[in-house]
Amino acid sequence: MAENRVKPKSGFNPIDPDRKETIIYHARNLFQERSFDGVNIREIMQLAEVTQPTIYYYFQNKDGLFLAVLLDILTEIDSEFNRASRESDFHKQLQIIAQAFMEPPTPNLPMLFGELKRRVEHNKHFPEQGLTPSQARSAFLYVNQTWPRSLENILRDARRAGEAALDDPGFTASYLLTILTAYPHSPFVNFRVKDKEQARDTLLNYLITMLRMSSASAQI
Q: Could you give the CA distance from residue 90 to residue 139 in angstroms, rounded to a whole number?
C-alpha cells in the first residue's frame, strides 16, 4: 500500500527513468489533500524537480495527471483484493480489504471520484483539453465491476462455508463497498475512535455481525 512506497530521493534527476512515478507520488499527496482545483502544476514541478514539459509529456495535461494518480490508488487497492481472494479465512479476507481502504494515507475515494466526474462533465465541450468519458472509464471499472465481482465471489464462498447467510451476494457486495469507501472519511469515525486500527476493528465487527445474520440483505 501507499505507506510502503519508497519516497523518491532528493536531488531527483529529471532524466531518471523513474521520473513518471516520482511525479505521480508528489501529485498524489497534493490531490488527496486539496482536490483538483487546489493543486497547482508548478507545485508538483518543484516537488518532483521536473519541468512543465516533462509533466505534459507523460500526462498531456493536469486532468491526465489526476487520472494517473487515481489509477495509481485504485491499482494498489485492487492488488489487496487479489491478495484477499487467495486467503482461505473469511475474516482475514475482510480484514485485508478493509485495511486497503483505511491504510494511511487513507484515499478519499468519494472525493476523488466526485472530482473525476466533475472534470469529465466540465470537459465535454473541450475533449482535447481534459478527460473524456472513455478515458475515465478505466477508473470507474474498478468500483462498478472489478471490485463488486471480486467481493461477490468472496461472499459466495463464505456462504457455502457457512460464514455468511446472504440472500443476494451481489447486492451485499455493492453495499459493503459503499461502506468501505465512505467509512474512513465519516466525520464520526475520528470522533469515536482513537486510531485507525481501532476504526478498522470496529468496522470489521460490524460487517461480520451483519453478514452472519440469518438474512443480511433483509437487514440492509
A: 27
Residue 212: CATH number of its domain? 1.10.357.10
- Residue 172's domain comprises 2-219
Give pTM, 2 decimals: 0.83
Q: Which of 66, 63, 71, 25 is nearest to 47 (CA)?
A: 25
CA 201/CA 199 separation, integer angstroms: 6
Cell 475515465 locates to 136
Report the alpha-carbon distance of residue 46 to residue 190 in Å, rounded.
Answer: 33
Judge whether 97 and 180 are in contact, CB under 8 Å: yes
Cell matching residue 166: 446472504
What are the tens digits of pLDDT across the range 40-72? 999 999 999 999 999 999 998 999 999 999 999
List pLDDT tens digits, range 78-133. Answer: 999 999 999 999 999 999 999 899 887 788 899 999 999 999 998 887 767 778 88
